[in-house]
Amino acid sequence: MIQNQKRIFLYALILTFVVFNIGIFMGYMLESSRISQINSMYVTAEIELLDQMAQKNSFSVLDLDCDLLVKENIKFGDKVYQEALTIQRYEDANIMGTEIAIQHKRFDLLRALFWINSIEIKQKCNPSYHDIVYFYKYNDPSIEQDSKQDLFSNLLGELKENKGDGLMLIPIAGDNDIPSINLLIKKYNITEFPTILIDEKIKVTNVEEIEDMEKYLK
User: Which residue range forms the structural domain that includes residue 209?
Assistant: First the structure.
């Protein structure tokens, strides 16, 4: 009887060890797959942004069509937003290793460059769309900030769905200590997170309903 109990215990221990290690391996493979996908997304987005910047810089020299330039900018802006949602889903799944945090910084910088490029396009072409830059706290937000940021994210997502191409939504983490983003934060006097900046003019730090946002877009 004692020998059987020892044998059963040993089998259970071995099975637990095997299952535990399989779980770790599968988790590692899943995270590696997601990081690989994010890397691929970044490289593609970087190439497309460089193309956008080349179009903008060639505008006066090549006599490019403003409508085409704006159309391509809106298209890229929508892609930036969708990529932000994808990364957020990965982070919500608790895939929060160092590599993901580094990738997040890369995308923040890419979004900042896109925003600067969009400002220059607006100055050249005077498009009809609005741009909204959403600055939020990425590293260890307080419970109050986290709750507020969930509300802001949901409202902005709904607003983007309603406005479509009429709205350029650019989320940027404001606390990743990226010098160029810090300069933008200083220029527009962003003093707290989260803050919503509309058309480089209007700052919103408190909002409860989508109607509170829509009044700024008329």
Answer: 129-218
